[in-house]
């Protein structure tokens, strides 16, 4: 609920997150609350991270996480967004980069990244997602958003003919009933 309220508050006053390499002028949380100036965010790292300006996501990506090993992915998700070990790495070549993360309510059990994808459903067609990998930036544009049954593996195993990014989380947040899947293409 906190994420939802913060998102609506920022939208109501027209404030946005803006990707910037220069965050020397850091804004305090209080200043962000009263200001309408854009909030600059720099990627947490350029080795492997994801930034989604629209919803304020700026998080490291943990590479090569096995999706069938619950203990392994539970541990990875405490440290950021997980990259499925069976998926591709970001590149300009055709392939599916599959990243998954929590949309949960129990941060006390799952760690500070337990709600990192709570607002993923706020993304619309055309929104941009930035993935940083080995010093390079890959910019993707959202082309699809859908809810699938909880155990549907199609988004992970589908064949693609262009560089594709798939983001997946639980839906509705705090449950494991379904999966929200956002698909984006490299632009």
Automatic annotation (TrEMBL):
<dbReference type="InterPro" id="IPR005754">
    <property type="entry name" value="Sortase"/>
</dbReference>
<keyword id="KW-0378">Hydrolase</keyword>
<protein>
    <submittedName>
        <fullName>Sortase family protein</fullName>
    </submittedName>
</protein>
<dbReference type="GO" id="GO:0016787">
    <property type="term" value="F:hydrolase activity"/>
</dbReference>
<dbReference type="InterPro" id="IPR023365">
    <property type="entry name" value="Sortase_dom-sf"/>
</dbReference>
<dbReference type="InterPro" id="IPR042003">
    <property type="entry name" value="Sortase_E"/>
</dbReference>
<dbReference type="Pfam" id="PF04203">
    <property type="entry name" value="Sortase"/>
</dbReference>
């Amino acid at each position: 609920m906190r994420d939802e309220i913060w998102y609506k508050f920022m939208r109501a006053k027209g404030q946005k997150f803006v990707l910037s390499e220069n965050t020397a002028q850091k804004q305090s949380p209080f200043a962000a609350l009263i200001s309408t100036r854009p909030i600059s965010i720099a990627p947490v790292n350029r080795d492997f991270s994801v930034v989604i300006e629209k919803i304020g996501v700026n998080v490291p990506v943990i590479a090569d996480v096995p999706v069938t090993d619950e203990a392994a992915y539970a541990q990875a998700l405490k440290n950021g967004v997980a990259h499925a070990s069976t998926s591709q790495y970001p590149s300009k070549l055709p392939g599916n980069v599959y990243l998954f993360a929590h949309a949960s309510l129990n941060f006390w059990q799952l760690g500070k990244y337990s709600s990192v994808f709570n607002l993923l459903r706020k993304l619309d067609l055309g929104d941009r997602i930035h993935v940083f990998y080995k010093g390079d930036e890959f910019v993707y544009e959202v082309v699809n958003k859908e809810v699938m049954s909880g155990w549907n593996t199609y988004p992970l195993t589908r064949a693609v003919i262009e560089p594709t990014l798939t983001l997946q989380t639980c839906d509705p947040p705090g449950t494991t009933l379904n999966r929200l899947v956002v698909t984006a293409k490299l632009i």
